[in-house]
Design brief:
Chains A, B: Its EC number is 1.11.1.-. Chains A, B: It comes from Salegentibacter chungangensis. Chains A, B: This is OsmC family protein. 2 copies of one chain form a homodimer. The first copy, chain A, is α+β, with helices and mostly antiparallel strands and about 190 residues long. Chain A has a domain at about 85-180: K homology (KH) domain (GMP Synthetase, Chain A, domain 3, 2-Layer Sandwich). Helices cover about 30% and strands about 35% of the residues of chain A. Chain A is built from 4 helices and 10 strands. Chain A has helices at about 15-25, 85-110, 155-170, 170-175; strands spanning about 5-10, 10, 30-40, 45-50, 55, 60, 65-70, 115-125, 140-150, 180-185. Chain A has a 5-stranded antiparallel β-sheet, with no helix packed on it. The first copy, chain A, has a two-stranded antiparallel sheet with strand order 1-2. In chain A, helix 2 (about 85-110) crosses helix 3. Chains A and B meet through strand 2, helix 1, strand 3, strand 4 and strand 7 of A and strand 2, helix 1, strand 3, strand 4 and strand 7 of B. Strand 9 (about 140-150) of chain A pairs parallel with strand 10 (about 180-185) of chain B.
Chain lengths: ~190, ~190
């Protein structure tokens, strides 16, 4: 699965190694700021635009237009199904993060991955959101991630990789450990 | 902004009040399970499908097809810009959650909202993701949310509403407080 520019799992391994070396030389390169703008469209419906970010000491200009993600609730939660809801979008964010972590680290370690799938589940009790409980939490009580990977690497090596990915995944870190969130009305 | 079915801010207020009453009568109605399936498509690119969920004591059947959200990285992070990345998707999830919380609670309290916008920013240092630091965290060091609301309600009332939303937002709860995440290879 390697070709002349040393891609493994679709990842340019040379660029990955070069990035690590550059960050070692100049820690400022590792500082990123990501952004999103969200507009309410009525009821539970909103649209988020995602385009610019800062990183590697510069404002990124690689995206010609913004990605758009719509959010809404299903009818049972008073919405009109214009998009996945917020806690479903969170499951996507987590799975997307684990995917990148798994694939990039597999590439770096010389592991070829043929396929990778995640089944995500989150259990949530609405009492707190509805203002009916101070003891129940508003968010998921538990998230269960099951993943299936096809690879010629031994299962033990894949499990080690998964353990490593769990230590270094940005979204998983933000779920397992508190993140400071400042909210200000302007 | 009220009409015959008592919609405020596009939210069916009668249905909202009825939902609260039903949950008070039967706590089981409040139990939901949300789900997502994510497939790796090569490099940093994945696609998440979101459709079914369990809630209000039944499997939902309101969605005729799955919502799809694609994730990828920009070129500087070895991707091809097929979608927003995981930590950007997380900003969407948070803003979408705050939107629903703000709008639904405004509707319940009789506050008319004309417009609502969120500007989201998250600062992240790549050292941990790249395996170059044990002391830096992989996730955002800080998330900053700025929101602008147009409403005929007094600013003080809107700020109180925002404080209440912060206490009851599922995604904000999951960022500010640890969530158990179980990860299993199948």
């Amino acid at each position: 699965m390697e070709n002349v520019i040393h891609k493994r799992n679709g990842v340019n391994v040379d660029q990955l190694m070069q990035t690590i070396d550059l960050v070692k030389e100049d820690p400022e390169i590792a500082k990123f700021q990501f952004r999103a703008e969200t507009e309410w469209l009525g009821g539970g419906h909103c649209k988020t635009k995602i385009k610019d970010f800062y990183g590697a000491k510069t404002e990124d200009s690689s995206r010609s237009r913004a990605f758009e993600i719509e959010g809404d609730e299903p009818p049972v939660l008073l919405g009109e199904n214009n998009g996945a809801n917020a806690v479903e979008a969170l499951l996507h964010a987590l799975a997307s993060c684990l995917t990148v972590g798994f694939i990039y680290n597999a590439a770096a370690k010389g592991i070829n991955v043929e396929s990778l799938n995640f089944q995500m589940k989150g259990d949530l009790d609405l009492h707190a959101f509805l203002g009916l409980s101070e003891s129940k939490r508003p968010g998921y009580e538990k998230i269960i991630v099951k993943y299936k990977v096809k690879s010629d690497a031994p299962k033990e090596q894949l499990k080690e990789l998964c353990d490593y990915v769990q230590k270094t995944s940005p979204v998983l870190d933000m779920l397992r450990n508190p993140v400071p969130v400042e909210i200000e009305m302007i």
